[in-house]
Amino acid sequence: MIDEADAAAAAAFTPVLKLADLPANTKKAVQVGAKCLLVCNVNDKLYAIANVCSHNEKPLERGRMGNGWIACPVHGARFDLSTGAALNLPAKLPIATYEVRVSGDDVEVLV
Q1: Which of 60, 63, 69, 102 counts the highest number of beta carbons within 10 A?
Q2: How confident is the model over 67-76, as pLDDT tens digits?
Q3: Cα–Cα distance between 75 and 54 in angstroms, integer?
Q4: Is 65 exposed, middle or buried (0-12, 13-18, 19+ CB in 10 A)?
């Protein structure tokens, strides 16, 4: 059984990169434990998502970004950066999203 203290320790904000290393309209893949995440800066709003397409399990880091979405570079499936929802075929399943914040000059992700 996991108590509240263990759950809080397991889910903590982790610094993943410096804000200066993520200019507007760029993205950067980061590793947090066993998870590969993609931190995106779209119009100065930060998002953190799983760096994997739910359709074919390919990395999203080379995909195009638009206003609130990212496209898989292999088949063009798009995902909402806020919710992870699949926006078009061939993807049907969402991808994981993570809370992101800035603390000082660090970008931190809740995992």
Answers
A1: 60
A2: 999 999 999 9
A3: 11
A4: buried
Give residue for tokens 């990169």: 17
DSSP H or E stretch at residue 78: strand 78-80
* Class of 4-110 in CATH: mainly beta
- Name the CA dihedral angle for 99, 108, 31, 82, rounded to a multiple of 10 degrees: 30
Residue ranges of the alpha helices (H) in the chain?
4-10
The ranges assigned to domains in the chain are 4-110
CB of 61 within 8 A of CB of 71?
no
pTM above 0.85, yes or no: yes
Burial 17-45 (b: 16+ CB within 10 A, else e): beeeebeeeebbebeeeeeebbbbbbeee
